[in-house]
Structure formats: C-alpha cells, structure tokens
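Good day; I would like, with your permission, to put a structural problem before you. A protein sequence and the structure tokens that stand for its backbone fold form the material at issue. Thank you for your consideration; the sequence and its tokens are set out here:
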Amino acid sequence: MEQHSIHSNPLNHFDVIVIGSGFAGLTAAIECKMMGGNVVVVEKMKAIGGNSIISDGGIAAPNTEEQHHQGIVDSADMMFEDMMKSGEGLNDPFITKIVCDHALEAYQWSKNILHVQYMPRVDIFGGHQVPRCYSPDPLSGSTIILRMKEKCIELGIEIRLGMFVEKFILKHNRVIGVQVDSNYTLDPRHSKHIHELYASKAVIVASGGFAADTQFIQKYKPDFDGFSQTTNKKTSTAEVLEACIDLHCATAHLDQIQWMPWSTNLEPGYGRGGLFGDYIVSSYGILINIQTGQRFVNELGNRKVVTQKILEAKDVIGIVDSTSVEKAGWDLQLALRKGIIKSHMTIDDIAQAYSIPSFKLNTSILDYNKVLLTKQNDPFNKVIEPWMTPLQKAPFYTMIITPKTHYSLGGLVTNLETQVLNTKGQIIPGLCAVGEVTGLTHGANRLGSCSVTECLVMGRIAGRKVMES
C-alpha cells in the first residue's frame, strides 16, 4: 500500500474541525459557523449523513404546540424521568437533564433555522409516558440531513468527503488537529494520501456509534453474537473512538449495545419492516409468540425489555389490522410486494400461515380487543391510548419480528459542555465530542426519537462552546 508524504497547506488551518457529517456533526458545524467560526467537516465516506441519513429522523420534545393542541400534558421533567428510568441509572443525570431541558428549543431550531417540516401528528414509543415524538415529512433522516446540507451551503461550510481520521495531532497535551487519509475508500488496498488539518480552537468528534463493528463490540462484550444483523450501515465502526482511546480519553459503558426490537431478518438494515414494527405494531398492534399463540410483553415497553422478551420467545410475529394501518397513515405496498409484510383475510389464516395454535391465537386477540373495548387494565401493563382500536377489520397484516443491533450506548466521557475527559477525569484541551460517540446520555437503553434530540442539543452546545473558548 503506497503512502504519500505528509504535506502542509495554509488552506488546512481552521478554527474548528468537526469529524462526522451526521445530525450531531452538522449541527455543531452550523452553530460554529453562525457564531463566526471558520469550520470544516470531515467525513470518511463519499456522501454525508452516516447512520443519521438512514434513520427515521424522529425527534422527541416535551411541552410543544402540537401537544398543547391535542391536550397532551408533558414537561422536560417528565421526559427526564422517562430517560432515567429507561437508562437504569447508568445515565449521567446532569447530561440527560440538559438534553431534556433543551429538547423543545432544539426542536424549534430544526423548524426555524433548518426549515424541517414535520408530519401533523405526535407519536408515542416504548418507554415514553406520553406522545412526544415528531417525524419529519417525508419520514426519513435524509429529510433533516438535506435541510442541514442546504444550511451548510448557505453558510459556506466546507464538507470534505473521503477523509478518514488516522490519528489526532497534539501539541503540549492539547489537540490541535487531525491526520487524515484524504483518499479513503472501503478497499483496504487503496493508496493513502496523508494530510494534516489544524484547528486553533477545537476538534469536535461526532463520528457516530459502532453498532456494526463486531470486532470492537466483542472486545468489550465477549458474549456478543457476531452473527446478529444490524440496522446500521456497515461503516458504523469505532476507528475514531479507538483513536480517542489512544489519547487516554475516558470511556463508559462500551459493553452496552441497544437492539432494535421492531426489525426483521427478511430484509437488511432497518428497512420498511422496521418502520412497520416501530410505528404501527408497537402502538396499534400486538406481538405473538408463534409457539404458544399468546402475547408475552407490553408492546410499548422500553426497547431493552421488549428485545429481551422477543429473544426469549425466539419465534415472534407482529399483528395489526386494516384500521391500525389507516390510522397510522402508512403505505405498506412496497413491503407487501417484497414479502416482508404479509396480508391475511382472517385470524385463522394467520394461524395457518405460521403454524400457530388457532384457538390460542383467536383467544389472545379477543382478550386484547376486550381490554380496548371495556377500558380494562392490560395484563401486560400496556398504556391504552384513546386512539387505539381493537384488531377486528380485515385484512390483517403480520411480520416476523427479529431484533437487530441498533445503537451503541457507550462511548466517550464528556463534561456538561461536551469537553472530552481523560482517564483521570481531566479535560483534554481542544477536544469535544457529541452524539452517539459519547456514552453518558442514555444509560442502559435509549428511548425512541431521543437520539436526534441529543444530537441537536449537544451539537449546538459544542458549537457555541468552542467558539467562546
């Protein structure tokens, strides 16, 4: 492999270098630039967005106008309570509190500054007390990334693609830049072009998570099943995090990996099935153990609990009816054509298709419908919302449910101002980190839509902090 010599260029000097072009990185870059900074974004791939661009782009925020119009009572304290409960005490409460306290502001920033448009609805996902989640229109993380890209162009923010960070550059124990391969490709035989980029104020690490990096996960979680599928891009790997570890940066919870319970192995990645499971089955439908024909979990429980129960049951399907799909407002045609989702005219047809005991399946659905119709307490403690309806109207829709690795909960340790700390608890001058590469916000489990909130809140804080320094 040919390696070219390092060469300097006056155009390679900036106030701020941002590593990564997902939600967190572009937010930080935009905030830097709006405060007058000279900032560059470096992205290892040939296109921006990382995992952000393939996410659903949902953001969580309390006390919004949309909630007020629907009579939903919510607050930053309620959101904080939900995130801390979900995190099982592994969250840093001060950082989590910042995310919740500034969530509404970040949501409004996305609308007023980025001009993101959202669907006219408020969703609830597992672990949230109330509906507080908002989906971009059209539903995709690419909707937000596109708005961010447009803002970067408007502000004159340079984004350099195909730039792989090899290591950090230090001077007197301060991070002053990065050494990059500016000719990076996924082909390990490619010729490297090594350059140095310098930052007078700070390097902001927003390189994302490592949920697709089996080798790195197994280093910290030896019992991890390396054959599991992932919702992530295969490029969601830990190289930049490892470069930070080489600097003696402190890390936390690297053994904590979140699985997405709502996906299916009938397609790669998160896909159409993931949307069907996350947005329709969890709220409007039920999960059935194929072997027993019975429900076994609160479908609106937090992702960690739901995943554990699905993995224990092994063979699981999600079931909804036509009313569920109509109320959710989703088009299932593509997933139906691909065979990811299946259509059935009767409950007995479902039983036959999956070899489920017919009597038990019918009984399970009748029992669930009775809970909705009579307003009884659900035996699995699912919170029954007024808009939920019994599963009665054909056709019925089903999908095999298979959890996949989704989010790396652990990462770098930072203070409340996003500055990275070393293993002695001291600030590493010139180095900040935001987004999934950090490891203190979500603890043992991340609630749906809270990742985008964190990226925007902490990205904005980082952008302002480095320009004030």
Q: What stands out?
A: DSSP finds 15 helices and 18 strands in the chain. The longest helix spans residues 450-468. Confidence is low (pLDDT under 50) at residues 1-7.
